[in-house]
Amino acid sequence: MFDLVVKNGLCLVDDRFLDCNIGIEGNKIAYIGKNKVKGEEEINARDCLVLPGFFNAHTHSAMTLLRGYAEALPLNQWLDKVWKIEAMLDESSIYWGSMLACIEMLRNGVTCFADMYIHMDSVAKAVEESGIRAVLGYGMADRGIEERIEKEIRIAMDFSERWNGRSRVKVMLTPHAIYTCSKEFLSIINKIAKEKGILKHIHVSETLWEVKESKKKFEKTPVELLDSIGFLDKKTILVHCVWLSDAEIKKIAEKEASVVHCPSSNLKLSSGIARVAEMVESGIDVAIGTDGAASNNMLNPLLEARTAALLQQLRRKFLNPLKYLEMVSKNGYMIYGIDGGEIMEGKIADIVIFELKLHHMPFYDYKNSLLFSSTGNEVRDVIVDGKVVLEDRELVYVDEERILDKILDKISKIISQNGD
Fold this sequence. Notes:
By secondary structure, the chain is of the alpha/beta class. The chain has 15 helices and 17 strands. The strands form 2 sheets. Strands 1, 2, 3, 4, 5, 14, 15, 16 and 17 form a 9-stranded mixed β-sheet that branches. Helix 2 (91-107) packs parallel to helix 3 (120-130), helix 11 crosses helix 12 (321-327) and helix 12 (321-327) packs across helix 14. It is globular. The relative contact order is 0.16.
């Protein structure tokens, strides 16, 4: 008798869809096979796909509060407008914005997300209460002011000590970018990360402006700068990487650093199209992120995977659709060091039950249908850490109406304070 059983589903195991039942014991997948199994709790997945949970590998969850606020702007102008509002956000605002993000992501099949932002205790609290999993870090920026370095590191490390390993939370160190963090600051962060074995996560080469400014200031590109201080290694996650040379792609691969691709955000902010196919071909592990709702509007990694595939095909670069499905599940778990993202015995039970719809038919290949014909709204049930958190499209731990009421209240106060 298992704690939880998913039966009669068409399960994505390795690179194939198989008819099988899944037995879950505690928070791990304990059995996969065709034998009839019993559970204290059972989910009938007949006529559904059973998938590894989706991983949103880069977002700023509380930016749901700014969804639609700064539109039709390139990144530099967008940042100026967004930073003005962010200065007004308090812990309560971040909590409710993050709760909204958590329920949106769960409904889209996201079982884990990576987040760098402010007031991160509030984000962690939202993770704890909603039932989702997350990798979290305080978004550090010294802005070239030496007096800020100690304070920023203290905030980050205090958060790390309070939350690492608690309530499905893993922590990382998250300097914002090379244009908001001094070289000295990045070197200190790198040293701490290596000493403590902590992941590092940073925006890199998102825009051509960033690359040009880096060359002016350091006579190096952002990737070259990070490499020069020993920042690139297997525990480094580089976000965006839109403007990379062949040599930089080769360097990232050699150092075994990973990349998170956020295609919709890059398109919306007119940043460019990342050379994802070349990264994959070079051996770089690439995962998919949505970025924040202010620069994407939706927190739906499956749609991001579709966009990523279409952009590469526009460049006449064709990858197997399975590669993109791995980017949105397996690769996220892998680069963040969490033993999930696959339907496999012994893996963490983060699982999505996905209903097939009219717009998927006919089924020549389930992987193709899943990638190119899905919206994310097909998600029916979500299991995180062996527990059902979305059951027949109903959230188990969250009062959705209360959250929406709170969000409307927070937004009206922010707008009135800003004079908009």
